[in-house]
Amino acid sequence: MSTLAFGVDIGGSGVKGAPVDLVNGELAGERVRIPTPQPSTPKAVAQVVAQVVAAFRDLPADLPVGITIPAVVKHGVTTSAANIDKKWIGCPAQDLMDSVLGRPTVLLNDGDAAGLAETYYGAARDEAGLVIVTTLGTGIGSALIHHGHLVPNSELGHLEIDGFEAEKRAAASARERENLSWPAYIKRLQRYYGTLDFLFSPDLFVVGGGISKRADKFLPDLKLNCPIVPAQLRNEAGIVGAARYAAEAAGEVLLAG
Question: In the chain, what are the domains?
Answer without folding.
Answer: 4-112+236-249 (3.30.420.40), 127-231 (3.30.420.40)
